[in-house]
Amino acid sequence: MPSVQILLIEDLAEDAQLIREALAAEPSAGFKLTHVDRLVNGLRHLGEHPVDVVLLDLKLPDSEGIETVVAVRARAPHVPIVVLTASDDTALAVEAVQKGAADYLVKGYVQVYPSLLARAIRYALERRRAEAERARLQRQLSQAQKMETIGRFAGGIAHDFKNVLQVILSLAWLIRSHRQDDRELMANVEELVHAAESGSGLVQQLLAFSRQQPLEPAHFDLNEAVREISRLLQQLVGEPVRLQLELLPEPLMVRMDRTGLEQILMNLCANARDSMPQGGPLTIRTARRTADEPFLDAHPGLSMGDYVGLSVQDRGQGMDPAVAAHLFEPFFTTKQLGQGTGLGLAVVYGLVQQHQGCIEVETAPGRGTTFHLYFPRQ
Description:
The chain is α/β, with parallel strands linked by helices.
């Protein structure tokens, strides 16, 4: 069990000893105490060392009152503060909590009931974990809502654009069938058809992102499907990139659209190729995963059961968190103008969602990127 790093900021030696004895009465809790007698020393310690909980006296030689709480909170906003004071002042206790303290204890009570301090520390830590979990879930909910809104918007545009392109193509084919003798006109019509068909490709990608592209799911072995497409993927990424397969020996049965799987892998591999201009290893792995409670908490909407894991790892440039947060948004790209549509990863996201799966990204600048995909196992 990891120790709990506690920083005590207290100038009175006898009160510091009282706290040490109260914490020593809970040997199984793993409390590790560091004591300083000035606020300035405490702030310095917070800036240089990991701290789980701060025990803070409000009457110090270099600081006094609520401003002491404010100063500690400003230096370490995510570290719980338990105020320890000789004053049984309800108004002061309320104000301390309002300014960011997790709890407020009177030293006299701690002397009579030593277990109160350990209880307050545990409560502060549990509250911090609960707040962090709530913030994480809120971020996930906000991201899901944002992607859903963008998906609906993209799907609506795609359908309207598809209708416009269909009219353009129909008229182009009509002209082509009646004016074969006009070579100059035919050349222009061919350019028109080519541009409209390119636009149709973009429409299909938008529909895939918005989960409105029709699928034809079938049962097959994921390992075998990856082996079959690996030659095409190697041709896609080019010779400087070395495609490596690390597949489980036993079959991994899934129910997926085979073309959708190929589209997912091609987009991820193309993205990996572009992140490694000098070449390098590109690894595709398969795995099994049971959806336990932590996994389901991290991926709301998934069901309990067995999943098949598919990961694509490159050793390229990697991304910082600010960039990674927008990866799956349509038309978001880090490439130069004219070098990408910004739809590749949006399509991957949409197809994974359509297959009742989920996707994770593991990346950091200079450390490459790994996409982890999970699909229900059949």
